Amino acid sequence: MPAPAARFLVVLDADSTLIRNEVIELIADEAGRGPEVAAATEAAMRGEVDFATSLRSRVARLEGVATAALADVLARVEPTPGVRELIDAIHARGGAVGVVSGGFHEILDTVAPSLGVDVWRANRLVTADGALTGVVDGDIVDAEGKAAALREWAEDAGVPLARTIAIGDGANDLKMMAAAGLGVAFNAKPAVRERADLIVGPVDLAEVIALLP
To answer: In the annotation, is 137 catalytic?
Structure first.
């Protein structure tokens, strides 16, 4: 979906940014594989392993989880404090909000519109016979994919990159943050904090409102 015309654009990561959770870990809990997937996620977010390779490996551990269990996962998702205030403030100032995620449409398609997000993109899980197959459908939304989404949405919205803000926490957000006019590390890993333009310390997205144009 194209981003709506806007005065500026803010693009957020989803897991541990828009929401407090790592969705793949919640799904892994349903398979009884939470700790091993959590450890692999942490390594990927620190930039120690290739994100796409890591994601495929982690999703493979989800094979056999019933698709009906995704409703339980959705019920456990917690929006990050301040997210509604930030999105309301962006819209009040004529901006648009995008979310690009290394997580999954199966969750984001419910969460994003409920929070007022204008446009979003994520990975899709392959299912068969009412269960996850352990495979990701199509190309992985990785660091390059996140940066590409920001550029695409900015063009759709008629917004120069100088009037874009990217907010993320993990190594796969760095290229998106570098492409944006302002890259904000939020609840971030050390490697991201080192390379961000600004760091938001409190886990409260309302802190970002002061940065809006």
So the answer is: no
Q: Which of 15, 118, 156, 169 is catalytic?
A: 15
**pTM score of the predicted model:** 0.94
Secondary structure letter of residue 17 according to DSSP: T
Average pLDDT over residues 97-115: 97
CA distances from 63 to 50, 131, 142 (A): 21, 7, 21
Ordered domains of the chain (ranges, CATH): 8-211 (3.40.50.1000)
Alpha-carbon gap, residue 169 to 190, rounded angstroms: 9
Which one of 13, 29, 156, 173 is the catalytic residue? 13
15 is catalytic: yes
Give the angle 31-53-132 at the CA atoms, nearest 5°.
Answer: 30
Q: So what's the pLDDT on residue 38? A: 74
111-116 contacts at long range (C-beta below 8 A, 24 or more positions apart): 111/14, 111/18, 111/19, 111/74, 111/77, 111/79, 112/14, 112/18, 115/18, 115/79, 115/83, 115/84, 115/87, 116/84, 116/87, 116/88, 116/91
Task: Outline where DSSP puts E strands in 108-180.
Answer: 119-128, 131-137, 164-168
pLDDT digits (tens, 9 = 90+) for 26-75: 998 888 877 777 777 777 667 777 888 888 888 988 999 999 999 999 99
